[in-house]
Design goal:
The chain folds into 2 domains: about 5-165 and about 355-410, ATPase, nucleotide binding domain (Nucleotidyltransferase, domain 5, 2-Layer Sandwich), CATH 3.30.420; about 170-355, ATPase, nucleotide binding domain (Nucleotidyltransferase, domain 5, 2-Layer Sandwich). The protein has helices spanning about 5-10, 55-65, 75-100, 140-145, 155-160, 170-175, 215-225, 235-240, 245-250, 265-270, 270-280, 285-310, 330-340, 355-370, 380; strands at about 15-20, 30-35, 45-55, 110, 115-120, 125, 130, 130-135, 150, 185-190, 190-200, 210-215, 320, 345, 350, 350-355, 390-395. α2 (about 55-65) crosses α3 (about 75-100), α7 runs antiparallel to α12 (about 285-310) and α12 runs parallel beside α13 (about 330-340). The longest helix has 25 residues, at about 75-100. It is an alpha/beta fold. It has a 6-stranded mixed beta sheet. Strands 12-11-10-13-14 form a 5-stranded mixed beta sheet, with helices on both faces. Strands 5-8 form a two-stranded antiparallel ribbon.
Length: about 400
């Protein structure tokens, strides 16, 4: 592909775009294929395909280790940047294979990358105060291995203007889900939970969004520690236990979920250190009760945030849930109990489901970048200016979907 193909892509009326996501759960690479017509508030999307590729456990653990400032190693991060680029490329090639397409059929990839560190606060470092965030799995590796122009690294542009680079999903929520007469909340339960409030007929400035606290991150961590399973599938472990009040009260002392927004959090807070302390407290407690308690804590923190920081301003009539946490029946039952009188449902709109939603976001953000539209939301990220998000990576070879790369790196 020659770089003047970029002009072609820019001038197209519609584009075929692949969105790639690996979130803070580090469970899988989700790849979605969509047709996007127009851009901004006029974007029309059609979902054409989806695959999800599990992340090998050794890579998952390496990401956890390297997300932690005490155990992270710069040489491992340097290598993971390329290894994950290859892993993400394979997810694209598998998607192409599944739908019998090749790289020439696709205009763009939008890739989130893997968050390795997220520092949305302004603590002083050498006397400098900046907000920063870092995603790896380089988009230039993806462009070159897939033969498709790739836009990646969306978050960092927001940090140029003192934003935290997060959350990004409210942009998608705003352009696709704002309702004329209903106040809606969109909740995504990934590794972390985040909520977007869309008052009826909201303008971009009226959208309100923040991380509420943990999603599946604590549940996954403890399930791995206690049962050597990556996550509590179908909440089978949580269902066998009951809430331990002492442990629940200990969790209530957490400062992030109870802080008023704007706020954004991640593995730096709810990751290994947090989980180790929690396990120390829970030494005498039945394993199933531990998992039940942290599962109920996740649901509670979501409701706490609604009750204290949202309802007083905007009473919602509909809560639309996406992310892997919507597959956890204990979380869902608990949320339905807390949100009595409000319609609680799983996302399933315009072909967007609870599984593909966040990957759709990165396809849409790639489309916004190429269209020259700022896609950060100052009202939610705290940045002082609009910014065009993403870095565009070009390539010179097209690829057939036959050759996969990730496994071939193991030599
Ligand atoms: N069937 C299920 N039962 C219980 N939990 C599930 C199920 N499917 C997914 N999850 C949870 O969702 C997580 C993945 O959610 P996801 O939305 O992909 O998060 P992220 O965006 O952080 O990757 C898994 O790690 C797991 O905790
Ligand atoms: Mg995931």
């Amino acid at each position: 592909m020659k770089s003047n193909n970029l002009n072609k892509i820019i001038n197209k009326k519609f584009r075929l775009v692949i969105g790639l996501l690996s979130g803070t759960s580090v469970d899988a690479v989700d790849a979605v294929l969509l047709k996007i017509t127009g851009s901004g508030i006029n974007s029309k999307i059609k979902i054409l395909g989806f695959t999800t590729q599990p992340i090998p456990n050794d890579i998952r653990l390496a990401i956890f280790r390297n997300s932690n400032s005490r155990t992270g190693k710069i040489d491992e991060i340097c290598r993971l940047n390329v290894i994950l680029g290859a892993l993400f490329s394979d997810a694209v090639l598998k998607l192409l294979r599944k739908y019998k397409l090749n790289s020439r059929d696709i205009d763009l990839i939008g890739s989130h990358g893997q968050t390795i560190h997220h520092l949305p606060g302004r603590e002083s470092f050498l006397g400098y105060k900046v907000k920063s965030t870092m995603q790896i799995g380089d988009p230039s590796i993806i462009a070159n291995l897939t033969g498709i122009t790739t836009v990646g690294d969306f978050r960092i542009a927001d940090c140029a203007f003192d934003g935290g680079g997060a959350p990004l999903v409210p942009y998608l929520d705003y352009i696709l889900f704002t309702h004329n007469s209903k106040n809606r909340a969109l909740l995504n339960i990934g590794g972390i939970s985040n909520i977007t409030i869309l008052p009826a007929g909201a303008s971009k400035e009226e959208v309100f969004a923040f991380d509420t606290g943990p999603g599946n991150m604590i549940i996954d961590g403890l399930t791995y520690h206690l049962f050597r399973k990556g996550y509590d599938k179908g909440a089978v472990f949580a269902k066998k236990g009951k809430v331990n009040l002492e442990l629940f009260n200990y969790l209530l002392e957490d400062k992030i979920y109870s802080t008023s927004p704007p706020k954004s959090t991640g593995r730096e807070h709810y990751g290994m250190e947090f989980q180790k302390k929690l396990l120390k407290k829970a030494k005498e407690i039945n394993k199933y009760d531990i998992v039940r308690t942290v599962t109920e804590f996740t649901a509670f923190t979501i409701y706490y945030n609604y009750k204290n920081f949202i309802e007083p301003k905007d009473k919602i009539s509909e809560l639309i849930i996406s992310g892997g946490g919507s597959e956890n029946p204990v979380i869902m039952k608990s949320l339905r109990n807390y949100f009595k009188g409000i319609k609680v449902r799983k996302m399933n709109d315009h072909g967007i489901t609870s599984k593909n939603k966040e990957a759709v976001l990165f396809a849409v953000l790639a489309n916004e970048c190429i269209s020259g539209n700022p896609a950060n939301m100052r009202s939610v990220s705290g940045s002082t200016k609009d910014a065009i998000l993403g870095k565009i990576c070009l390539c010179c070879h097209s690829r057939e979907s036959g050759n996969l790369y990730f496994k071939s790196l193991k030599r």
